[in-house]
Amino acid sequence: MMEIFLFELKYRLRRPATYIYIFLMFIIPLLLSVFQDSVTAEYTNGPNAITGILGGMSIISLFFYAAIMGVAVYRDEEHQTAQTYFTFPISEKNYILGRFWGSFTIVTVMNIAAVIGTMIGFAMGAFLERPDYGTYTAFDFTAYFMPFLYLLTFNAFFIGSLFFCLMTFFKRMSILYLGGIVILILSMASGQLLSNLDTEWLSIYVDPFGETAYSYITKYWTIDELNHTQLSLSGKFAINRLLWLGISLLIFFFTLFRFSYKGFLMSSRKKTTKASKETYVAPSFIPNITQQFDAKARRENLWSLSQIEFLSIVKENVFLVLIVLGIIVAGFVTYQ
């Protein structure tokens, strides 16, 4: 496992995209923290404000997690290097664990960059001494560590496990996009549920990021509680976090124990077999072809390519699923 883990780590560290993701995870919360203000007696850099920024980053980073965790195993099939693992004494579980934890380590570095960016941003905001931005309090490491653990790390593990599982078994980017869309829909639905007194209790279980669950418990807090109460794994927030952590572990162990080299290579073998069966048939008659590059030909090419792309999208099962989800969400919002 260690060899696969180190290989994945070194591969990611050689990719420029990795440093772009880390930089974005650093600069976005830094800017948000610098321009964070408070129009009430709540501290500008209090625990509630810090949790809000880092919790929001755990949602924004969904796309970065997908780029890191979603392609760890799929990359071997894309580059046609998966067959080489039959020649090495690497078990299937060690292969999965090495790929997963190598990618998850990079994701954790990204999350640490978000925390550091938030720290520096609030420090810069306090240094600028802007009275109209509210009152700043003393630095408290716990206020940063708790959101890092319960929001960034928990969400990274859930999203990483889900995307890793989807790409391992389906090996299609469209499925990965669908998974991300479903997660965002659940997050939006939980916000809608929270806004209704009759359904706010349900928002705790629907929210995969924990942001809505945190808003639920702080909904009626006083200014003093917002300024001094640290994020903790208790009450309704604990129910949300442990529920989605349990779902994450189920997905992770399902991937770990269901993965097999044989099943992973089956689709690529079918593609190779299908391609090998196609034989070349020489045409009996070759007509004379006159190439045309006028405006009419360009319009016909545009129309033909548009039809091909449109039909390729409509025929996808993912497209039909998205249509159904859109109808469900529209009905849900209308009901609310």
If you had to describe this structure to a student in words, what would you say it looks like?
The protein has 336 residues and is mainly alpha-helical. It contains 15 helices and no strands. α4 packs antiparallel against α6, α6 (92-127) packs antiparallel against α7 and α7 (141-169) crosses α8. The radius of gyration is 25 Å and the shape is globular. 33% of the residues are buried. The mean pLDDT is 82.
Short description:
By secondary structure, the protein is an all-alpha fold. It has helices at residues 2-13, 16-34, 47-60, 62-69, 74-78, 92-127, 141-169, 173-194, 203-206, 211-218, 223-228, 235-258, 261-277, 295-314, 317-335. The protein is globular and about 85 Å long.
Can you lay out the helices and strands and say which pair or pack?
Layout: H1 2-13, H2 16-34, H3 47-60, H4 62-69, H5 74-78, H6 92-127, H7 141-169, H8 173-194, H9 203-206, H10 211-218, H11 223-228, H12 235-258, H13 261-277, H14 295-314, H15 317-335
Helix pairs in contact: 1-6, 2-3, 2-6, 3-6, 3-7, 4-6, 4-7, 6-7, 7-8, 7-12, 8-15, 10-12
Can you tag this structure with a few keywords?
72% helix
